């Protein structure tokens, strides 16, 4: 046995010293191809490394922004509801309630280009061309009074733009400025202060979501579900009688609807978000969802008597901007007829 | 609104009745009390002691029993514009021990939790490496594996409390945290597989990490940290990651803010500078009183909170023996000690750690006490092995002002009333 072991041990020791680097490699994975790296490596650094080649100005950007961004960020980048405000807030960072926007807060223009190209519009990320990216970023800068409307923003002019808060950041200095203040020596154990007063109470503010009574809450849910059930049956029967409802197609439509979900809701708990809730939309009068702020384009269509029958909906969903000029819906359209039909079938299954 | 207030006060009255009844039963402190009538739960044969229960496989993958239906993640709808880019909170007030079950561990998405299959998963390593590589999920499972327990805390945890006591519940004030046992591969192993010769001197190098979701949530991590303890994890608490936590693989960045723990990790680029992405400039930077902002505030400082009693976990048993329990953690090391105060910080006593603190993981503490039924102002104060002592909110505000949003690790105060109800308050 020993004779067998000896040369074996010897060989492995030799291998260990002769090829220390290779010993750490496992030979797993494969080489990434240049096309693959190009498809994923989009990051843009503050020194301009990675800037896409292209250009655009605020005039082009205004139209693109209205189409693709305004439904969340507002026509003037001022922000809708709680969606991010992209413009304004200059010199407010030391205020009681600072307004942090691209103009007032973001230190590098590279970051805006990186983020818009990579992750916007919300729900349709990576769909902007490089020229569109520059035009939209130019419009955001223009909305912050940082460039003139005819300034052509491009990979070559990026550094002509001064970001107001470029020097507003310091690297984490907690170790120097804080740690010694409260972490030196033994912590106090008794007579640490003379008296204690309550200075603020959360109940006064009363902004905590209601969570009391687990058993009550679940009983309520059960009740609602019981009530809802027969109604649902009725709905299905009704729909089936009106137009032959195709459950298989509706199932396929549920997948297609993922593209719509970032702005539209359906179902029992559906609410208006950046788009109106869509329960009962098939066959409904256009622009008639309560509480939703429609574009003037939809209001006009409603006045003209537009009803969302399957045919009209299909046209709208195929090319929204072409079908209804001025719509706030920032969606490019469904390319496949099959998808359009499927999503309409899916929408049919939600009664108003 | 008035209807909601009405409902709350009603349930509070009901709760008070219950508390009063129980404390009347506990007559003599220090010895067990006597019952007048025999307990039917004992004297009568109960159905569960007579009939048969569920067979095996009644639930092939089990969920908590229905009586625990209240122990769930919750969100605060007014915090964000949309649930797709939002956060919810771990029900820490109802959990014990340190490991967070995946099903109730908080979620934070920037463009929704995506459905990514293992067979569609690819991980690319590119940039300043000798050979840019692509790994499949199956490749990842062939590298030597490690197991570690770490907490993951969102930098914004307790962020709503800067200006004052606001949310009434430990779940909401401190629930942007979870603690799991991760199984995966060290990032160092993967970087060495691609080869770091091309990067030259590693001292000033970075890795940029991004996810496969639409937000991509790109972040820059200094090479020193990347080679130290960062992991690519594919299992948590023994099973596959949940969709909402980055299935099939996420980054684990021990002790550092949760935003850097990129989910659905798809690309790691070795670079000679920080990208300064949206998530590390416009967000996750801490604005100070004079308007300048700190960036690269990665480490989560030592912090603790009493999880019970707390507003959602009131005292229902009246005076006598009471277990005060809580969690402590530090992104810079292990918790060595936790002190508890019942009088708003005038006097402190040292709590018992359930187990010695582990680096960058949650530590459970207990203070076994005898409650005299009087009002308490409960606080806890964590100390880690660097000697760091958890500060008060006043101390933090003196340095940072009110607008930092992130990294609020202040001492929390709960007001416990004689009836056992608990409220989030701030004290002088």
What can you tell me about this protein's structure?
The complex is a heterodimer of chains A (352) and B (428). Chain A has a two-stranded antiparallel ribbon with strand order 2-3. Chain A is 43% helix and 4% strand. Chain A has helices at residues 2-18, 20-24, 34-40, 58-68, 70-73, 109-119, 130-143, 174-177, 179-182, 202-205, 214-242, 247-256, 296-303, 310-318, 320-323, 337-348, and strands at residues 30-31, 55-56, 153-154, 169-171, 198-201. Among the domains of chain A are: 35-160, Cytochrome c-like domain (Cytochrome Bc1 Complex, Chain D, domain 2); 234-348, Cytochrome c-like domain (Cytochrome Bc1 Complex, Chain D, domain 2). Chain A has 352 residues and is mostly helical. In chain A, 31% of the residues are buried. The model of chain A is unreliable at 1-23 and 213-242 (pLDDT under 50). Chain B is of the alpha+beta class and 428 residues long. In chain B, the strands form six sheets. Chain B has a five-stranded mixed β-sheet with strand order 5-4-13-8-9. In chain B, strands 6, 7, 10, 11 and 12 form a five-stranded antiparallel β-sheet that branches. Chain B has two domains: 102-294, Alpha-Beta Complex (Sulfite Oxidase, Chain A, domain 2); 303-425, Immunoglobulin-like. At the A-B interface, strand 1, helix 3, helix 6, strand 4 and helix 9 of A face helix 1, strand 1, strand 4, strand 5 and strand 13 of B. Strand 4 (169-171) of chain A pairs parallel with strand 15 (293-295) of chain B, so a sheet runs across the interface.
Number of helices of chain B: 8
Percentage of residues assigned to helices of chain A: 40-55%
State mean pLDDT of chain A (0 to 100 scale): 82
Strand content of chain A: under 5%
Number of helical regions of chain A = 16
- What CATH architecture of the largest domain in chain B do you see? Alpha-Beta Complex
Query: Largest sheet of chain B, order of strands side by side?
Result: 5-4-13-8-9
CATH architecture of the domain at 35-160 in chain A: Orthogonal Bundle
Compute the number of strand runs of chain A. Answer: 5
Question: Any idea of the CATH topology of the domain at 35-160 in chain A?
Answer: Cytochrome Bc1 Complex, Chain D, domain 2
What is the succession of H and E elements of chain A?
Answer: HHEHEHHHHEEHHEHHHHHHH
Largest sheet of chain A: 2 strands, antiparallel
Supply the CATH class of the domain at 35-160 in chain A: Mainly Alpha
């Amino acid at each position: 046995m020993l004779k067998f072991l000896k040369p074996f041990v010897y060989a492995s020791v030799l291998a260990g010293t002769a090829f220390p680097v290779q010993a750490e490699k496992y030979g797993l994975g494969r080489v990434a191809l240049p096309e693959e790296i190009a498809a994923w490596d989009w990051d843009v650094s503050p020194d301009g490394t990675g800037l896409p080649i292209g250009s655009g100005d605020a005039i082009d950007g205004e139209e693109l922004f209205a189409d693709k961004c305004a439904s969340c960020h507002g026509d003037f980048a001022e922000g809708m509801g709680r969606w991010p405000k992209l413009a304004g807030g200059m010199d407010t960072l030391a205020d009681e309630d600072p307004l942090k926007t691209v103009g007032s807060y973001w230190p590098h223009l590279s970051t805006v280009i990186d983020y818009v190209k990579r992750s916007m519009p919300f729900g349709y990320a990576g769909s902007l061309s490089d020229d569109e990216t520059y035009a939209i970023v130019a419009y955001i800068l223009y909305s912050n009074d940082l460039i003139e409307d005819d300034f052509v923003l491009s990979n070559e002019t990026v550094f002509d733009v001064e970001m107001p808060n470029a020097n507003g950041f310091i690297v984490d200095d907690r170790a120097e400025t804080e740690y010694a203040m409260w972490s030196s020596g033994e912590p106090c154990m008794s007579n640490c202060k003379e008296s204690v007063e309550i200075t603020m109470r959360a109940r006064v503010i009363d902004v905590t979501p209601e969570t009391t009574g687990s058993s009550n809450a679940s009983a309520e849910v059960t009740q609602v579900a019981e009530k809802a059930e027969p109604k649902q049956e009725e709905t299905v029967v009704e729909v089936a009688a009106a137009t032959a409802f195709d459950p298989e197609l509706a199932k396929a439509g549920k997948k297609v609807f993922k593209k719509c979900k970032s702005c539209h809701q359906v179902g029992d708990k559906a609410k208006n978000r950046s788009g109106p809730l869509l329960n009962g939309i098939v066959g409904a009068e256009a622009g008639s969802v309560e509480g939703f702020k429609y574009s003037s384009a939809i209001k006009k269509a409603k006045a003209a008597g537009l009803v969302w029958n399957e045919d009209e909906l299909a046209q709208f969903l195929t090319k929204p901007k072409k079908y209804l000029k001025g719509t706030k819906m920032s969606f490019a359209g469904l390319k496949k007829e099959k998808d359009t039909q499927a999503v309409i079938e899916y929408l049919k299954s939600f009664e108003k | 609104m008035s209807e909601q207030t009405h409902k709350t006060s009603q349930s509070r009255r009901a709760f008070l009745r219950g508390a009063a009844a129980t404390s009347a039963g506990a007559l003599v402190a220090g010895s067990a009390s006597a019952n007048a009538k025999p307990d039917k739960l004992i004297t009568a044969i109960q159905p569960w002691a007579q009939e048969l229960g569920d067979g095996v496989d009644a639930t092939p993958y089990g969920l908590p029993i229905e009586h625990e239906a209240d122990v769930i993640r919750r969100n605060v709808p007014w915090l964000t514009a949309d649930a797709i880019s939002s956060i919810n909170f771990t029900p820490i007030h109802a959990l014990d021990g340190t490991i967070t079950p995946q099903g109730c561990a908080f979620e934070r998405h920037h463009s929704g939790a995506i459905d990514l299959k293992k067979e569609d998963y690819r991980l690319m390593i590119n940039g300043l490496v000798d050979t840019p590589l692509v790994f499949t999920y199956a490749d990842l499972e062939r590298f030597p594996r490690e197991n570690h327990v770490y907490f993951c805390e969102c930098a914004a945890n307790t962020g709503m409390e800067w200006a004052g006591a606001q949310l009434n519940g430990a779940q909401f004030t401190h629930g942007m945290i979870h603690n799991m046992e991760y199984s995966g591969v060290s990032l160092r192993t993967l970087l060495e597989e691609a080869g770091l010769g091309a990067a030259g001197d590693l001292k000033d190098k970075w890795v940029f990490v991004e996810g496969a979701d639409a937000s991509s949530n790109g972040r820059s991590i200094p090479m020193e940290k990347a080679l130290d303890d960062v992991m690519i994890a594919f299992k948590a608490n023994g099973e596959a990651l949940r969709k909402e936590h980055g299935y099939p693989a996420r980054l684990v960045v021990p002790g550092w803010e949760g935003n850097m723990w990129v989910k659905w990790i798809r690309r790691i680029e070795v670079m000679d500078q920080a990208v300064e992405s949206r998530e590390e400039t416009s967000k996750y930077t801490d604005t100070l009183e004079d308007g300048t902002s700190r960036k690269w505030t990665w480490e989560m400082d030592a912090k603790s909170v009493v999880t019970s009693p707390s507003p959602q976990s009131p005292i229902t048993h009246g005076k006598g023996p009471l277990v005060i329990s809580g969690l402590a953690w530090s992104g810079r090391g292990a918790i060595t000690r936790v002190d508890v105060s019942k009088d708003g910080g005038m006097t402190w006593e040292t709590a018992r750690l359930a187990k010695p603190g582990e680096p960058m993981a949650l530590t459970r503490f207990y203070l076994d006490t005898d409650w005299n039924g009087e009002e308490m102002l409960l606080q806890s104060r964590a100390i880690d092995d660097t000697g760091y002592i958890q500060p008060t909110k006043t101390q933090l505000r003196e340095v940072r002002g009110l607008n930092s949003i992130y990294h609020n690790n202040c001492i929390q105060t709960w007001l416990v009333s004689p009836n056992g109800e608990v409220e989030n308050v701030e004290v002088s």
